[in-house]
Design brief:
six-stranded antiparallel sheet; binds NADP nicotinamide-adenine-dinucleotide phosphate; alpha/beta; binds flavin-adenine dinucleotide
């Protein structure tokens, strides 16, 4: 894509795609205002998770609990400046009507380095370095470091290269939006949306790498700043239509986000259905997100059961699925009474392990073979009684 088109996309979205109603897709974001962030972990935690609030009154964006919120982040300006220094390029070099520095901050992705960047580097370097750049552009890993090469590391690896700034921008990918589960209810938080965001930070060699969107929300976005946002409607992740239906929610870590929204929504509508939340995290004293709210909902009776699992309080890991197994009989009873079951959070391991525990519980307390229990859980999914929002 030519640099000018890339820069234009960074502002309004691709012109050749059909236009959806404003704010309902990544191609058609609207402007909202960043209000605030508050740290959910207490001192001593190994995690950094933020409660984020965003004002929707001006854009008038509407959402339902269960939906996800999309937003276009900005790269860390310090990283953009390091790229400019490594390129020895002027920050105000014009690219598509904007400055090179502006485009590096909000137009293109600075991680990981795409094949097209290595292709460009192969054209402007020679000898062994050209061969290496060609190999990297073909998806090979000549020095065993390909996985660590973000855009800055790639330029530093080929130090001294001076690509034309416009060609450089053309070789990079556009900066993509990120999605977050909504942790508020529009019935309670009128004109606002809340998110629950874990800040991604890790070290590679001597350099700290930052997750773009999570650290943007966790630190760089200033109160009052304008954000480009949209609501991604959930397909198959929503409260039951019948407010009497009991719900079982399993959401460790940031997975609690949509369940905070579900509970607040059910309280606002006076839904009589029973509510059971399984929450887990590393340490009870510093990682119990929304503890006051959840305890108050429990005391008021809205939250029928609150089951907690702290993975690092004891000598052995203890996860939400371990707690589920402990109370398997009651969990089965709820399911037999027609409860819906929801999982939110880590897709790679947690969601699979929780589903395995569910199958075991259905087999043990529902008096079924493992195959029958697997079929029972599959049927729950088919009927929309078992829904997942995992990432
Ligand atoms: C439907 C949906 C809902 C979501 N809801 C939430 C939510 O409620 N809360 C939430 O916090 N997130 C949520 N996410 C995840 C979120 O969209 C982002 O993916 C997340 O915040 C990271 O984005 P980032 O821009 O900060 O990081 P990026 O810049 O995208 O960097 C993340 C990448 O960094 C690399 N990486 C991360 N850690 C390491 C490491 N230790 N070592 C080496 N490489 C590493 C990995 O390649 C990873 O993919 C959701 C995702 C989806 C799809
Ligand atoms: N790449 C990975 O390996 C990995 C792993 C976890 C999360 N993530 C991602 O990190 C982001 C934020 O995570 P988060 O802040 O929501 O918290 P999280 O890192 O998912 O942790 C929440 C809780 O879940 C526990 N946990 C870890 N593995 C589990 C499993 N197999 N089954 C059940 N519970 C398990 C954690 O315990 P312990 O930390 O003590 O093990 C912690 O107590 C998400 O995007 C998630 O997908 C990635």
């Amino acid at each position: 894509m030519p640099a000018a088109a890339k820069v234009a996309n960074a502002v309004v979205g691709p012109a050749d795609k059909p236009q959806t109603p404003a704010g309902t897709s990544r191609d058609n974001p609207v402007e909202a205002t960043f209000i605030s962030r508050a740290l959910l972990n207490k001192p001593g935690s190994a995690k950094e998770t933020w409660h984020i609030e965003i004002d929707l009154t001006e854009c008038g964006l509407d959402y339902q609990v269960g939906d996800a919120f999309g937003l276009y982040p900005h790269n860390d300006p310090a990283l953009a400046d390091a790229v400019l220094r490594a390129l020895d390029a002027p920050p105000d070099f014009p690219v598509g009507g904007r400055t090179l520095r502006e485009v590096l901050i909000d137009g293109i992705s600075l991680a990981p380095a795409p094949d097209t960047l290595f292709q460009l580097l192969s054209y402007i370097t020679g000898g062994e370095r050209r061969k290496k750049a060609q190999a990297l552009s073909a998806g090979e890993d000549p020095d065993g470091d390909a996985a660590t090469l973000d855009v800055l590391a790639a330029i530093e690896k080929f130090s001294g290269v001076r690509p034309d700034p416009e060609a450089f921008i053309e070789a990079l990918d556009p900066l993509q939006p990120r999605l977050y589960s909504i942790s508020s209810s529009p019935k309670v938080h009128k004109g606002r949306v809340a998110l629950t965001v874990d800040a991604v930070r890790y070290d590679i060699g001597k350099r700290k790498r930052l997750g773009v969107a999570s650290t943007f929300l966790a630190g760089r976005a200033e109160p009052g700043a304008s954000l480009r946002v949209y609501v991604q409607k959930a397909h198959g992740f929503a409260l039951p239509q019948d407010p009497r239906t009991p719900i079982i929610m399993i959401g460790p870590g940031t997975g609690v986000a949509p369940f905070r929204a579900f509970l607040l929504d059910r309280r606002a509508t006076g839904a009589p259905g029973k509510n059971w939340l399984f929450f887990g995290h590393q340490r009870s004293d510093c990682d119990f997100f929304y503890a006051d709210e959840l305890n108050a909902l429990k005391t008021s009776g809205l939250l029928t059961r609150l089951s907690l699992a702290w993975s690092r309080d004891g000598d052995k890991k203890f996860y939400v699925q371990d707690r589920m197994r402990e109370v398997g009989r009651e969990l089965w009873t709820w399911l037999a009474e027609g409860a819906n079951l929801y999982i939110c959070g880590d897709a790679k391991r947690m969601a699979k392990d929780v589903e395995r525990a569910l199958v075991d519980i259905v087999a043990q307390f529902g008096a079924r073979t493992t195959d029958e229990a697997v079929a029972f859980v599959a049927e729950l999914k088919k009927k929309g009684r078992f829904q997942q929002d995992v990432y």
